[in-house]
Amino acid sequence: MKHSDGGHEQDQAISLLRQVSDVDHRHYDENYVQELIEKAIWFTLHVSREGISAMHRVGSAGNTSNSVRPRKEKKFTYVLNDSDDTKHCAGINCLAVLKSSRPGGSDYLFTGSRDGTLKRWALGEDVATCSATFESHVDWVNDAVLTGGDTLVSCSSDTTVKIWNCLSDETCTRTLRQHSDYVTCLAAAENNSNIVASGGLGGEVFIWDLEAALSPLSKSNDSAEDDGAASVNGLVSSLTNTSMRPIGSSNNISLHATQSRGYTPISAKGHKESVYALATNDRGTLLVSGGTEKVVRVWDPRTGSKNMKLRGHTDNIRSLLLDSTGRFCLSGSSDSMIRLWDLGQQRCVHSYAVHTDSVWALASTPAFSHVYSGGRDSSLYMTDLETRESVLLCTKEHPISRLALHDNSIWVATTDSSVDRWPSEAHNPMKVFQRGGSFLAGNLSFSRAKASLEGSAPVPVYREPCLCIPGTPGLVQHEILNNRRHVLTKDTTGSVKLWEITKGMVIENYGKVSFDKKKEELFEMVSIPSWYTIDTRLGSISVHLETPQCFSAEMYSTDLNITGKPEDDKVNLARETLKGLLSHWLTKRRQKFGSQASANGEIPSGKDTSTRTFALCRIEGDSTGENDHVVYPPFEFSAASPPSIITEGSQGGPWRKKITDLDGTEDEKDFPWWVLDCVLNNRLPPRENTKCSFYLQPCEGSTVQILTQGKLSAPRILRIHKVVNYVIEKMVLDKPLDSMNADGAFAPGIPGGQISHPGVGGDGSFWSGLKSRQKLKPSIEILCNNQVLPPDMSLATVMDGNLKDQIGYVCGVNFCL
């Protein structure tokens, strides 16, 4: 769609915008183009009316009356990290072991967690040390595989597959965005480092050629993408560069959302429902998949064609293994059964009833003679595939989610945040059976369950693991307190803590106490607008900010104990929090580009792109606010345990990074425009409900004359003692109405009168004859519904506390100034 002055293109733009609004926002590969379309539409409809410089003002988000249709802006999230960032804080979903290629070299264990990160552990004889954290996924990491000796491939519920150089730095080298839903599983060919398969909840199975996927896009592809973007937005040339951005050594921000346009993976089509498990043989010539359809599908990964479909399980298939030749396949299912399939005969040759609940994880000995299995029953078994003899190796407190063999031991991951290593005797399994306690696995799923109910449950061979890699307890319960700055949490151990959201730190650890009782103890009669939402899906607190709602909460500087600032200055909580979070980024940006600013105020982008959006240049050049970048103590985030931010800009899709790892080159392609407008230009979007209206009348029975018959309005955060001061002013100083400020601020008798900053000291001084916060004897009280209101209570608290019928006052007998 090329820009012109005619109306046909605008009609097309409006139609496209309506389609964009209905798209599933998890489909990030489409959203990137849609974001460009929406911006182009807005520019097309507004450039003639407001001009370039006005288009990035607060109303330019598309949420004003000039918009075609309101759209949801991208949110900004920050994740509060535990003080010990070398540990996972949520369940472990995947394990991968990398054996050292050098004699005496260190082996590595890679773990992927529901906290959204992967970690690399250097393994010693009896110790494991965290040597790297890979942070880029914005949701659970569901699986990870190693290939080619130094390449780690991970998948996530954020619908992406990411490729990492696992031995150098912690940089994501490529993000693949082909899936339409959560990516749940991966499979890699041991002897073919190029082949990796991925499957997910969308029923899609893709086979990736990593060499082709990692190759840069050709020039023709770049040009094609550039032309496509130009056709969408003919006004802003900076949005036409939509080719991939190379990632530097210090920048692990996700790549272009549609970076895989230059390469299309092979699609194995046939699944109608979710895929939970994949496996491939060593050469990568055979692929098996399973999921909620309860069948094992066999594919040729070189073409994506179906070879066969194997039926037998009665519930979801959760784990699959192939032997090195590709003849035999093992499957574990939610029906509690393990089945051995002969793919040559296309049938199940053995069934093993070992577990009493869902089987989630399988691992086999190198000779494929014995299988290790774990699952929802929190038990780890080893079973001889030929003799059907089985033995319970150990039991855990939590369900077992993943297994990984390592020499004569086995790593066991659970839904807890820790990982244990147990003896396995993989090279000589008979050693374990010689210790006794074995039983014969049945071939019917109810046989083990029946034996368990009859009290004949086996005794575990091992009581304690060889090595434990502990995690930190994940959060399972939270409550936002009324002051909207504190959050009460409870973790998996029952420990209750109080967090200060605007500083990202624990300010009180109450230990193992009643969560509900502590919540009641901390209750305050105060009303602050809800300016953020939180969740604990990642095992820690994730704070979500969305415009314009996040800018609705304000407090006085004196209530925040900010020194060196007038006590009645308003402080916007979201703005100051954003400034605190991005203070490191601002410092780095000034260091990189501060001396390079050109005469017109434009600052270089820092990205390896030939053009950039005009908006950021205008923002940085026009910033004139006082103390724009000062971070006040209540909003200082710790550099020792810095939070991570999750967000997205105009390109690249969502990304995650610690605030201390930002290098200053991030710009509007990476951050939402409203965040930059706030932090760099000190501008906030229009806000609603910043004032409230009420009547001020004498209490019943009072002889005091009525000061006003009209409705008054004042800022919602105004304290009751300010209303008291107003009453004193009217009654004692007896100021006439015409002596009030010209704009009618807090004008009694005039409908719509307002309490403004000069009139009552809502933001500044009171009046020349009475200092702000002067202590008065209790001679005047403000009542609402016959309830006396505390002087420090805000009007918002009164209005939100069902006291809003009317506010009255009564004069005391001992009134004095």
Report what the structure shows:
The protein is α+β, with helices and mostly antiparallel strands. About 15% of the residues lie in helices and about 30% in strands. The protein contains 14 helices and 47 strands. The strands form twelve sheets. A five-stranded antiparallel β-sheet has the order 35-36-1-39-40, with no helix packed on it. It has a five-stranded antiparallel β-sheet with strand order 22-23-24-25-29, with no helix packed on it. Helix 12 links the parallel strand 43 and strand 44. Helix 1 (about 10-20) packs across helix 2 and helix 10 (about 615-620) runs parallel beside helix 11. The protein is elongated. Residues about 1-35, about 40-70, about 220-260, about 595-605, about 605-625, about 735-755, about 755-780 and about 810-815 have low confidence and may be disordered.
Instruction: Compute the CA-based radius of gyration.
Output: 32 Å
- Number of E-state strands: 47
Shape: elongated
* Main sheet attributes: strand count, strand direction, barrel closure: 5 strands, antiparallel
Record the strand order, biggest sheet: 35-36-1-39-40
Strand content: 25-35%
- State the secondary-structure class: alpha+beta
Number of helices: 14
Spans of at least 5 consecutive residues with low confidence: 1-33, 39-69, 218-260, 595-604, 606-626, 735-753, 755-778, 809-817
Helix content, binned percent = 10-25%
Termini separation = 72 Å
Mean pLDDT: 77
